[in-house]
Amino acid sequence: MNNLARKIELASNLAIILVSLLLGMVLVKNYLLNKSTSIQNAAANPVAANGQNLVGTKISLPDVDWAKNGQTLVLALSSTCHFCSESAPFYQQLAKAHDGTRLIAALPQTISEGERYLHALGVSVDGVKQASLDSINVRGTPTLMLVNSDGRVIDSWVGKLPVDQEAEVLSKVQSNRVSN
Q1: Are 23 and 16 in contact (CB under 8 A)?
Q2: Host domain of residue 22
Q3: Does pTM top 0.90 for this prediction?
Q4: Domain membership flag for residue 180
Q5: Residues 159, 71 within the same domain
C-alpha cells in the first residue's frame, strides 16, 4: 500500500510539473514573444503599433473648414477616458503654445458636455465638435491628429503620451510649417 501511494504521489508531481511547463510555454509565447515583436514594430512605426495608422486619412468634422484653418490639431477625447483627464496638464500646455495651429476637440459627448469637461480640466480650445470616434477613424482616446489644410492627417499620437512625444507634438504645433 505504501508503494502504491508513492507511485500516485510521483505521478501527481510529474503531472503538476508537466502542466506548469506547458502553461509557462503558453505564457512566454503569448506575452513575452508578442511583446518583443510589438516593441520592434513600435520602433519601425509607432502609430501602427498603437493599432492606428491615421496618416494620410481624410478627417471630416461638422462645420470645420480645413483650408481656412490651415494646420489644425484635433484632440479626440472622451469625458469618460481617464487617460484624457490625466493628460490635462499637457493639453493646457498645448493651448498656451499652439502658435497659429488651431486646436479642435472632438468628443462623442454633446458639445455642451464637451465644453464643460474641457473647462473642468482647464483646457481651452478653438472649437469643440461632437463626433463619434468611428466617424473620425479613431479607435480610442486620447488620440491627437495633426491635420493639414486639405483635411488629411499628417501625424498622429495615441494614448497618454510620454514626455518625448509631448515635446514632439509641441514642436510640430509651434512650428506651424506643414507640407501639404
Answers
A1: no
A2: 2-44
A3: no
A4: no
A5: yes
